[in-house]
């Protein structure tokens, strides 16, 4: 008897949990629909429903019609088909009917324009787009969250696309056009406020690898940094700063890196004048120009086990790959340039490799356990 009761209780809990999950998913779907244009469709439906209710009640009160007679009169008035009245109308009834027809014409016009917009101006495509993007977000792990889809945010997403990284965009301005990428790109787009815990949780911040905060206001970036660090202590945070005084605050709030686009841009422009060939070389590394040089970082534990412990001289990387060069090495939190060719490679090292894409691809094939580079 007790076992039977326990089984029934367990079944009830599972059923209740299933109903709860379905309700949550329904609310999420409704929220998405309101964001992509279904709101106008619901308003049109509500106005039509309200018109029928008001018309039916009014004819009952003014003319003393029964419920069925009042509803019938409302239908023929709304549809303007011109059937005869149930009974001759009083002076008040004719006045109400005249106003009721004008109101219904406005409602019908709004409803038709809404349906036309929904089916022929892309609203239904936006709905399917939003549903697909939302499904992507719910499946993501080890992804990157991009807060803000302005000029900086767009560039961040372009680089993430090149690196074939999954990412979620959070943008609060509905006027900004939603991005359209290829079908093979897995990304998410959330229309919401990135300063809210709920929005960051919707972007699955607990499962994200990094967050890039590109909002124009430093105060908002500091607040998002604090929130992100609290929600995911292990996440890598890159934040934008406009003022130099904000840089220190962002680091205190938990940012791993702070980028000042105006500061960097000014230095770059000045050095284009004072050191034009150095900047030209750096632009090549950034993918600007016909010849594309790439810099890649290689973690020691990515390398084959037989590579660990060997020196650069033994590996002879430049000859083996056709041109890839170890530009620097990071050990103990410091970069080492002009690396000693007889120094053995350790598992905790990070190698900075320079070369053309084909050279780096050869390096990947010869020395690495699996593919990490994106070309």
From TrEMBL:
Source species of the chain: Thermonema lapsum
Transmembrane segments: 41-59, 95-120
Lineage: Bacteria, Pseudomonadati, Bacteroidota, Cytophagia, Cytophagales
GO terms under biological process: potassium ion transport
Molecular function terms from GO: monoatomic cation transmembrane transporter activity
PROSITE patterns: RCK_C, RCK_N
Location(s), subcellular: Cell membrane
Predominant location: membrane
Sorted UniProt keywords: Ion channel, Ion transport, Membrane, Transmembrane, Transmembrane helix, Transport
Recorded topology in the membrane: Multi-pass membrane protein
Name by which UniProt lists this protein: Voltage-gated potassium channel
Manganese listed as a keyword: no
Pfam families recorded: Ion_trans_2, TrkA_C, TrkA_N
Residue span, RCK N-terminal domain: 141-260
GO cellular component, one term: plasma membrane
The RCK C-terminal domain, residue ranges: 282-369
Keyword Membrane: yes
